[in-house]
Structure formats: structure tokens, C-alpha cells
From TrEMBL:
The keyword DNA-binding appears for this protein: yes
The entry's keywords: Coiled coil, DNA recombination, DNA-binding
Annotated protein name in UniProt: Recombinase family protein
Keyword match Secreted: no
Coiled coil region boundaries: 400-449
Pfam families: Resolvase
PANTHER family: DNA-INVERTASE FROM LAMBDOID PROPHAGE, SERINE RECOMBINASE PINE-RELATED
Sequence ranges assigned to domain Resolvase/invertase-type recombinase catalytic in this UniProt record: 11-171
Length: 553
């Protein structure tokens, strides 16, 4: 006996609208009233908890199944959790699916085969195993309804795509004074009917700018949400702040609207008022790839670790901070119990640099070096690979243009040919499109590199080292977090080398000894690499942090 046959049959109602606006009419009340009628007629109780609603989800694109209530119901049916003899009430069969007819028919068959009766409000028809057995033409009717629904949705989709394509083409041609009907605008703008354009919403603009400021400082999503809700009111953002990581990478920040219509991608520049320049955005995206966000409960912030910059000179993996608390508050922990060391060596994972060094010694050495404004500016302004990067980017852009021309030529050839298009041409177009995406990624990477170089060139970087690093040992976590961001702005990488005396001279040991002479147990080395590829090698005393020797690459 099937386990769900012992359960009492239930009555479920399913209501779906493609847009929220459709729910504002009488259709919702009509569907709810019909469900109550069926419950009374069948002697079943209508439980509101069993009423499923998918508002604003499409049956044509199957979002009501992939992320809606119907998908949960179908999973319950498949797992045998819906009692046999239960009833599903809906307005019409196309509420369930408007996808391809065979696929839609399979979904309805899954429900009926689980001994569930489907009742439609539009025509008062019942569909179950018994009714279909008595009248097999019901199957034909079901398929005809689903074919019609799919064709209607397909026609509507084509009209929407055509209208959207025209709007995008009009915008690119210079026409203004209209809204492109695609998705929701960002929260910090509002449509101005008088001016026929988007204006800033002052309150939401202030919220977004504050989010960006906190993100740049290195705060994580939970901390950002906590601060935003404290400053702008409880419930302003979700307490997890999870959406922040998506918001800071959206090109609407620079005023762009990106629209995909079929296989075509449209970029509408200047559609929204921008919150930042393209240079600032490129740097933000490049910077976010190596986030220095702290955990919400983190007690100590190392200014060098956690941002993808500080590396082990032996294995090349990350160097992390380690604090031995021994039931003490962070302020009571001795300096000797706050240490930097290779993360992999600590895990005994193929790294021999098991020694560690006091955090204070390493951080003080880096800060002291960067506080020398003349010396730091000499390195930062001493040239870079900007010209080479620009040359490579120009070559990539030319290559991308050539590929796009080839794609257009092949597409025109397909339009001219009659009958079934040759598969070879279609395959070639697909390969070129893949190649174009790869090249575009390389172009974006080049822009990010240039953004980092430009950012580190500014006088502001050297000034910030002087202003932010005073009284380093006494700084709070938030103040240390600001310095961590400054480390990312200044350095491409910092490599730590501690003499292991294990007989293994791998990693950077040989390089350091060749340039600075033999090391000993009292020394450690730092290799500072800047965004313009300039390097500075420092040998320092482990216990005092004093500079022993140095070398410029």
C-alpha cells in the first residue's frame, strides 16, 4: 500500500499571475471564491496554508516551477507527500505551464498520475484518472489548450522582444524622453514624468553611497547592513547585507542599462544618472576581486593579511595572522602572541616555512617604509607598464572588432542561403562568439590593471599613509581596516621570507641571499611589489623591526 493513501485528501488551490499588476483586478477574488465552492461541494476544508500563489512569475519561462510555489508542490507530489484523492483547483490549465506543449503535458500528467484531481474554474472541468479513462478525448483537449497557451505566449514574447529591440535601437540612435521597458531601475533613481528621464532619489542615493563607502573600507555584508540600519532606520536593508556584493558590481552605478534581447546585448550609456565615474567603477571591480572584508565577530584585523596581497615567500600561498588569546581580551594579549605566518605551513600542507614573526615587527616595517613620502612617490611614479598594457589592449580591441565583423558576415550569408543552413557556418559563428567573449574578458582585465596603476599613482595614496598610520599599535579595528584598504591600493603583493634552516633553499630564499647576502635566525625578508611592477626588497631584524639592508629592482 502506498504510504500516502492513509492520509486524508486535501484541497489545494494554485493562483499565478505573470505580473503583480494582474493581481489587482477581480481575478484573484474570483479564483479564491471558486476554490471555496469546490471545497464545500467536495466536503473538504480549504486550508489557507495550502493556497499556493506565484505572483509575477512566468509559466512560459517556467520560473513558477524553478523558483515558485508550483515547483515545491510538484516536488511534494514526486515524493508522495500529497495524499491520494486530493484536489488541485486552478483557473485554467495554462496557469500551470505555458512552456512547450509536450513538456507542459508531462507536468499535468505527473499530477494526475499521483491520484490528484485537477479542477479548472474557467470551464468547471475535472481531470483525473477516472474521467480520462471514461473520456480519452480529454487528453486531446488538454494538449490543445496547452498548444494554444504556448503559441499565445510565444507571440507575446516576440512582440515584447521586437518592441524592446526598437527601444534600444532608438536610444542608441540618440532618441530620448522614454523609458526602456526592461526590469526594475536601481533603488537610488526615480522616473521624472515632467523631464522624461531618471532623477536621483535623494534618500536612496544617500543609502547607496554609504554602502559603497563602507564596502570600500572593507566591511562585510553583515556589518554594512548593521551600520546602514542603524543610520537610516531598522529594515532599510536585509540584515545579512548579502545583496551588497551584487550591487557594487552593477554597471548602473555608472549610468548604464544593460539589456539582453535574444542573442543581442545592448549597452545604453547615460540611461541613469551615474553615482561614480568609469575609472572609479573599474577600480572598484578590480578591488573587489581581492576583498579584505572582516568577519562580523573578528577581534583583530591584520593590516596586511586577508586581502590577497600578503604571500609566503616559500610556497607562494597566503600569509595569515594568528593571535593566541588564552582567555584574554585582545588589548591584554602580548605582542609576541600576535604573529604572521604561512597558512599552509600551519596546516602542515607542503610548506617548510613553519616559523612565524611578530605582527608588530612586520607591520611597523611596512608602515615606516610607506611613511617616507619622498621614497614612496619615487617608486610609485617611477614608471610602469602602462604603455605596454595600452598597446596590448588596442590589439585586443582590434581583434574583437575583426571577430565581430566575421560574425556579421557569416550571419548575412545565413540570411541569403535558402533551406536548412549549413551546420559548419553555425558552428563557426558559435566558435567566434566564444572567442569574442574571451577577448572581452581580457580587455576588462587590462582596464582593471590600468585602474589600479592610476589609483596608486595619486598623491593621495602617499598622504594617506602618513595620516592613517599614526599610533599604529593603538588603532581600532575600523582604523586598521582602512589601512588594509590602503595596502591594497599600494601593493600588488608582499612576500614574507623567514629562514627555515631546514636545508631547503626553495621559494625566494636563493634570490634574497644572492641580493642581500646570507641570512640568519634574527632576520626576515619582505619583497614589496607595487602595481607598476616596481619591487623593493627589505631585510629586517625579527625582534626590533630595524632595517638591516635593502635592494631596489
Amino acid at each position: 500500500m502506498n504510504k500516502h493513501t492513509t492520509l486524508k485528501p486535501l484541497l489545494y488551490s494554485y493562483i499565478r499571475f505573470s505580473t503583480i499588476e494582474q493581481a489587482k483586478g477581480q481575478s484573484l477574488n474570483r479564483q479564491l471564491s471558486f476554490a471555496k465552492e469546490v471545497a464545500k461541494e467536495k466536503g473538504l476544508e480549504l486550508d489557507d496554508s495550502l493556497s499556493m500563489r506565484d505572483m509575477g512569475l512566468s509559466a512560459f519561462h517556467k520560473t513558477n516551477i524553478t523558483r515558485g510555489a508550483l515547483g515545491i508542490f510538484l516536488a511534494a507530489v514526486e515524493q508522495g507527500k500529497v495524499p491520494a484523492g486530493s484536489i488541485l483547483v486552478l483557473e485554467s490549465l495554462d496557469r500551470i505551464s505555458r512552456a512547450a506543449p509536450l513538456e507542459s503535458q508531462g507536468i499535468i500528467a505527473q499530477i494526475i498520475n499521483a491520484d490528484i484531481t485537477v479542477i479548472t474554474a474557467a470551464d468547471r472541468k475535472e481531470y483525473n484518472k477516472e474521467t480520462i479513462k471514461k473520456n480519452p478525448m480529454d487528453l486531446v483537449y488538454i494538449i490543445l489548450v496547452l498548444i494554444r497557451a504556448n503559441e499565445e505566449s510565444e507571440t507575446k514574447s516576440l512582440r515584447v522582444r521586437s518592441a524592446l529591440t526598437k527601444q534600444c535601437d532608438d536610444w542608441l540612435a540618440g532618441k530620448r524622453g522614454f523609458r526602456v521597458k526592461c526590469g526594475k531601475p536601481p533603488s537610488w533613481v526615480v522616473w521624472n514624468d515632467d523631464k522624461k528621464l531618471f532623477d536621483f532619489d535623494p534618500h536612496n542615493k544617500a543609502i547607496m553611497l554609504r554602502k559603497l563607502e563602507l564596502f570600500k573600507k572593507g566591511h562585510g555584508g553583515i556589518k554594512i547592513a548593521e551600520l546602514i540600519n542603524a543610520e537610516f532606520g531598522a529594515g532599510t536593508v536585509h540584515h545579512t547585507g548579502a545583496n551588497v556584493y551584487k550591487e557594487v558590481k552593477r554597471r548602473s552605478l555608472i549610468g548604464e542599462l544593460n539589456v539582453k534581447v535574444g542573442d543581442a546585448d545592448y549597452v545604453l550609456e547615460g540611461y541613469y544618472p551615474p553615482l561614480m565615474s568609469k575609472v572609479e567603477f573599474d577600480f572598484l571591480v578590480a578591488d573587489s576581486s581581492k576583498r579584505g572584508a572582516t568577519k562580523h565577530t573578528q577581534k583583530f584585523v591584520g593590516i596586511l593579511s586577508g586581502v590577497g596581497v600578503f604571500k609566503c615567500g616559500c610556497c607562494g600561498k597566503s600569509v595569515g595572522s594568528h593571535v593566541v588569546y588564552r582567555k584574554k581580551c585582545i588589548d591584554e594579549v602580548k605582542s609576541s602572541h600576535k604573529r604572521y605566518g604561512c597558512v599552509e605551513a600551519r596546516r602542515n600542507n607542503n610548506c617548510t616555512m613553519s616559523s612565524t614573526v611578530q605582527i608588530e615587527m612586520v607591520e611597523s616595517a611596512v608602515v615606516k617604509f610607506c611613511q617616507d613620502k619622498v621614497n614612496l612617490q619615487r617608486i610609485l611614479l617611477g614608471g610602469s607598464d602602462r604603455e605596454l598594457i595600452n598597446t596590448e589592449e588596442s590589439a585586443l580591441v582590434a581583434q574583437l572588432e575583426k571577430i565581430n565583423d566575421d560574425i556579421n558576415s557569416l550571419t548575412e550569408t545565413l540570411l541569403i542561403l535558402e533551406g536548412t543552413p549549413p551546420q559548419a557556418i553555425a558552428n563557426k559563428i558559435s566558435a567566434l562568439e566564444t572567442q569574442a567573449r574571451d577577448i572581452q574578458t581580457q580587455i576588462d582585465t587590462s582596464k582593471n590593471k590600468l585602474a589600479k596603476i592610476d589609483h596608486s599613482f595619486r598623491d593621495e595614496v602617499t598622504d594617506r599613509w602618513l595620516s592613517l598610520t599614526k599610533n599604529l599599535v593603538k588603532l581600532s579595528n575600523d582604523e586598521r581596516l582602512a589601512i588594509r584598504q590602503l595596502v591594497k591600493d599600494t601593493f600588488k603583493s608582499i612576500s614574507l621570507q623567514l629562514n627555515t634552516f631546514s636545508g631547503d633553499k626553495g621559494g625566494l630564499n636563493n634570490v634574497f641571499e644572492h641580493l642581500l647576502g646570507a641570512s640568519n635566525a634574527d632576520y626576515f625578508e619582505l619583497l614589496l611589489e607595487f602595481h607598476n611592477d616596481k619591487k623593493r626588497l627589505l631585510r629586517l631584524h625579527k625582534h626590533t623591526g630595524e632595517l638591516v639592508s635593502g635592494y631596489d629592482f
